[in-house]
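Supplementary Methods, section 5.1.

A reviewer requested that the exact input to the structure prediction be made available. We therefore reproduce it here, unchanged from the version used in the analyses.
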Amino acid sequence: MPSHSGTDPERDALRAVYRLALLVAVVYLLVILWGSWVRITGSGAGCGDHWPLCNGVVVPKEAGQKTFIEFAHRVSSAIAGLMGLALVVVAFRRLPRGHRARGAAAAQFVFLIIEALLGRMLVKRGLVVDDDSVERAVVMGLHLVNTYLLIAWTVLCALWSRVSLTSDAHNDAANPRVPGLGALWTIAIFIVLMSVTGAVTALGDTIFPPHVRPSGGFMERLEDLFSPGEHFLVRMLVLHPIIAVIGSIAMVGLVWRFRLGRVGGSVRLLVWTIGFQLAFGLLNVLLKAPGWAQLIHLLLAEIMWAIFVLIASTSRDDRRSRPGLADA
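The structure derived from this sequence is encoded token-by-token as follows.
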């Protein structure tokens, strides 16, 4: 439960924004996972090239499985959009001007709009189902980065609404030492790089399923990475695991520097999440990337990002309260 101080109206306002932001973040995660299921099942063209209508109508009368999956994703996205708008309204009505949770609420809605526009682009340009173009890979990468920004600002809205409207929670002289912001930016880059290559790899697993690709050991697969005649999506199937292993080791080394800080518990959770994500990624490869495993892999990536955002924000506040700390 959030630890608020101040008057009862202040606590009620903060609690309302906090709870709504948490709910919206969970809904966003579910919609993101369902969007991934649309790709996995090849249902991206279930509503044709119409957007936001489905096959030219508001509600399709005769819906096959793929149409139902795509239509359900659009309905859930619309619900998420209304909830995101509600978060903005509640934050601006209940919190005073200048409260940073208001800014976070507005930011999440901006990225929600961008998310919808990227989804529209995928549909209108036919970047769905079996399309294996570079354009689709690029748009999917942007889609993933935008979901990270969407989740980040929603999580920050919840986090920042835990702070009293009148108290300054960042002038505590007892705050322990935290590392510099350079390490935080490095970790963020690693997470985004691993996730973007992972999104493109998931696309490769959809278009070039493991059960129809020639089998081979790691060295044979490694040769595909440097084969000029190989499709770029097949190359990514080898490149992503390499980046994931290197990035995970580097991130664990960086985040461990937080172990004595006020966010130590969160850091330990992040380290465990990174390790579990790496192990599950290996399991995903061994199982030949079934749909359910891809969804869990994506969920772990989003959770890892959310935990990092919490750590980064807390550490940044600590650093602001102690400007004498040197960058790492």
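The chain has a mean pLDDT of 80. These observations are discussed further in the main text.
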